[in-house]
Design brief:
Largest interface: A-B, 23 and 21 residues
Low-confidence stretches of chain B: none
Number of strands of chain B: 11
Structural class of chain B: mainly beta
Order of helices and strands of chain B: EEEEEEEEEEE
Shape of chain A: globular
Mean pLDDT of chain B: 91
Order of helices and strands of chain A: EEEEEEEEEEE
Distance between the termini of chain A: 31 Å
Radius of gyration of chain A: 13 Å
Largest sheet of chain B: 6 strands, mixed
Strand content of chain A: over 45%
Distance between the termini of chain B: 41 Å
Number of helices of chain A: 0
Oligomer: heterodimer
Helix content of chain B: under 10%
Largest sheet of chain A: 7 strands, mixed
Number of helices of chain B: 0
Chain lengths: ~120, ~110
């Protein structure tokens, strides 16, 4: 158990809908990262927040957005969902700001299925 | 641009045999390199990381990797495979604010 929690575990929705994925980092960790894992794209970094502020951006679509709240939990919002958004979405956390050398602790993921 | 290539999407080894998972990177500057493991239905777990200190990096569960700049490689090895090593392994490279994962190698352990 990494100490990172993600809810829900599974989510099934329809095209065009909007969903929110939630992540609670390990106690004391200030950075939260979001990743998408799919069969065709592999594992892709989406975005990082550090202490409430956006820190780094990867291959995140404009239809997707995220935020980190004062209690450090984070939410990933996915809107206008398409079939291709079906994937496993991981959240990770780390103690500090740096993406490069920090050890990241991954949650168990949320499996999103878009029908 | 930097990227990472993992050779072999599936690797099978016998229990007790040497595990060798290959990773090559391309980077214009010295990178930071990582190996992660993903067990079925779980998130990723860091095995080891190279951050420009020692070129031979020891990780958890008996794994190690050697950074070879001349070969732009960071192969993962373990002297003796165990059934519990069956999982998917990801090599990743980071520089500045970007992290790029390889496609992953699924390791199968044969009894």
């Amino acid at each position: 158990d990494s100490g990172v929690t993600q809810t829900p575990k599974h989510l099934i929705t329809a095209t065009g809908q909007r969903v929110t994925l939630r992540c609670s980092p390990r106690s004391g960790d200030l950075s939260v990262y979001w990743y998408q894992q799919s069969l065709d794209q592999g594992l892709q970094f989406l975005i990082q927040y550090y202490n409430g502020e956006e820190r780094a951006k990867g291959n995140i679509l404009e239809r997707f957005s995220a935020q980190q709240f004062p209690d450090l939990h984070s939410e990933l919002n996915l809107s206008s969902l398409e079939l291709g958004d079906s994937a496993l979405y991981f959240c990770a956390s780390s103690p500090f700001m740096g993406l490069a050398t920090d050890t990241q602790y991954f949650g168990p993921g949320t499996r999103l299925t878009v029908l | 641009a930097q990227s990472v290539t993992q050779l072999g999407s599936h690797v099978s080894v016998s229990e007790g045999a040497l595990v060798l998972l290959r990773c090559n990177y391309s980077s214009s500057v010295p990178p930071y390199l990582f190996w992660y493991v993903q067990y079925p239905n779980q998130g990723l777990q860091l095995l080891l990381k190279y951050t420009s200190a020692a070129t031979l990096v020891k990780g958890i569960n008996g794994f190690e990797a050697e950074f070879k700049k001349s070969e732009t490689s960071f192969h993962l090895t373990k002297p003796s495979a165990h059934m519990s090593d069956a999982a998917e392994y990801f090599c990743a490279v980071t520089r500045d604010d970007k992290i790029i994962f390889g496609k992953g190698t699924r390791l199968h352990i044969l009894p």
